[in-house]
UniProtKB/TrEMBL annotation:
Residues 250-277 form a coiled coil. It comes from Aminipila terrae. Residues 60-329, 384-460 form the Amidohydrolase domain. The keyword Ion transport does not apply. Transmembrane segments: none annotated. This is Amidohydrolase family protein. One of its GO terms (molecular function) is hydrolase activity, acting on carbon-nitrogen (but not peptide) bonds. Keywords: Coiled coil, Hydrolase. Signal peptide: none annotated. InterPro entries: Amidohydro_3, Metal-dep_hydrolase_composite.
């Protein structure tokens, strides 16, 4: 009787045998097989001994000598921006009002079929000398018969023409909404095709699988984009369609940094909304970008310090993109103050180019507090650039450290991810080619995964995906 219970408790859900498994575990660097149960590894070792975990319902996969790596963790992910690519007009914080009008005029001329024109990225202080009526008239000069909605960098200012304003007012009257918020404005005028967005996010998930990524960290995106993506991910989670674990963040910029209470409320809400999904969807990071040599308008470094101190007090991690040497110095001084105040457990990720981290006459990194501080290349890159970590790497081993062990530590999940060992979440990627045979490290980005496994379950198989594409193509043809 006792033996039967013992066997039942140790029967695996899935077993993978005959592989060349690079574990990243120093005690057992290579293995042949793994057994998975309830989303975790319960065995790592040779193929023969893995058989003791097989039961009548165990799914066994023969890897046929393929190479296995711990699930890659993408800490430079801009999936939300990629999902919205081409669906909004990109504006710059350097644009003046006349520049914005010119960009809009050109876009509308080239895209007359669109029902709503939406743009993002102008500087929040652009309209500070104007009333709402005056600002709307400026956009009316460009277009009066279709809604125009422009959201500022940091999302503190929504600039609309009178057509958009009238649509939102009519919707608010019908819904009995007394106050029109930015989020309600976005929903009621609705500039996006949400079905198309859902399809894009699902397609991106498969693309990340093909590169071996099993976890994604949102390294920065406008909050409204991130919220939409998170809603789709929640739907995918409910339908058991998740292909990666998602680590969200709240990005704040511009004048929003000065609104301490509002930022804390939004950050707490994002964490609370994913509390029950801790291993699948998670949000515990504040994201800030700092540029100090050309000081950002309305950015008070003392307010940045207060904000970082408060989020550290509440146990949130902080991701700071540092854009110049003065910003790095002030960033590290703030971290040192936070640590000296007794907040030592939360994690800081400082993302900046390698040359900024070199000591100078005015700055010595060794004199700063670096407890639980992790450095990585800047995430201020094109959204499709997923391999920034390899630019500073001199070997494949270094790249793998960046995408596994180091990434897991920097996200505070090294007890769950980063290596293949008993007790950790069973995430890994399978490759036909040996990654260590690459002629140069930069070719790592060209590797294609044959399979990715999340929580012990196969979520991507290149052969099945190719067959599905072939089937969709054939079924859509007129025979």
């Amino acid at each position: 009787m006792a033996f039967g219970l013992f066997k039942k408790n140790h029967t695996a859900d899935t077993i993978f045998i005959n592989g060349k498994i690079y574990t990243q575990n120093r005690d057992l660097p290579w293995a042949e097989a793994v057994a998975c149960k309830d989303g975790k590894f319960i065995y790592v070792g040779n193929s023969q001994d893995a058989g003791q975990y097989e039961g009548p319902d165990t799914y066994v996969v023969d890897l046929s000598g393929k190479y296995v790596l711990p699930g890659l963790i993408n800490t430079h992910n801009h999936g939300a921006l990629r999902a919205f690519e081409g669906m909004y007009i990109s504006l710059s914080e350097n644009d003046e009002i006349e520049d914005v009008q010119g960009i809009l005029s050109d876009y509308i001329l080239n895209n007359p079929e669109e029902d709503v024109y939406f743009g993002y990225g102008f500087k929040a202080g652009l309209l500070k000398e104007m009333t709402q009526e005056q600002a709307s008239l400026k956009l009316d000069e460009v277009c009066t018969d279709k809604p125009i909605m422009l959201l500022s960098l940091g999302e503190g200012t929504l600039w609309v023409n009178n057509c958009a304003l009238e649509q939102a007012r009519e919707a608010a009257q019908e819904d009995g909404v007394p106050m029109i918020s930015v989020s309600y404005f976005m929903q009621s005028v609705s500039p996006f095709n949400y079905e198309e967005l859902q399809n894009r996010i699902i397609e991106l998930a498969s693309e990340y699988c093909s590169k071996g990524f099993t976890s994604l960290f949102n390294a920065g995106a406008p909050e409204f984009m991130d919220n939409v993506c998170q809603e789709v991910l929640l739907m995918m989670h409910q339908q058991e369609m998740m292909k990666q674990r998602y680590f969200g963040s709240l990005e704040v910029a511009g004048d929003n940094i000065n609104r301490l209470k509002a930022v804390m409320k939004r950050l707490t809400e994002k964490k609370t909304n994913t509390m029950e999904l801790d291993d699948s969807i998670h949000c515990n990071v504040l994201k800030i970008s700092l540029r100090r040599e050309e000081e950002a308008e309305d950015l008070d470094i003392e307010n940045v310090k207060k904000l970082i101190m408060e989020v550290s007090d509440q146990g949130f991690n902080v991701h700071i993109d540092v854009l110049d040497s003065k910003a790095l110095k002030e960033c590290m001084e703030i971290i040192t103050v936070v640590r000296n105040a007794g907040y030592r457990k939360n994690i800081f990720i400082v993302a900046c180019d390698k040359e900024l981290r070199r000591d100078s006459e005015e700055f010595s990194l060794s004199e700063m507090c670096t407890d639980n501080v992790f450095f990585q290349p800047s995430t201020k890159r094109e959204p499709a650039e997923e391999y920034a970590a390899i630019e500073e790497a001199s070997s494949v081993e270094e790249i793998l450290d960046s995408f596994t062990i180091d990434a897991a530590i920097s996200l505070g999940v090294s007890d769950k991810l980063g290596t293949i060992e008993v007790g950790k979440l069973a995430d890994f990627a399978v490759f036909e080619k040996n990654p260590f045979d690459l002629i140069k490290p930069s070719l790592f980005k060209k590797l294609q995964a044959d399979m990715t496994v999340l929580g012990g379950q196969v979520v991507y198989d290149v052969e099945e995906d190719n067959m599905r594409e072939w089937y969709d193509l054939m079924s859509g043809m007129q025979l």
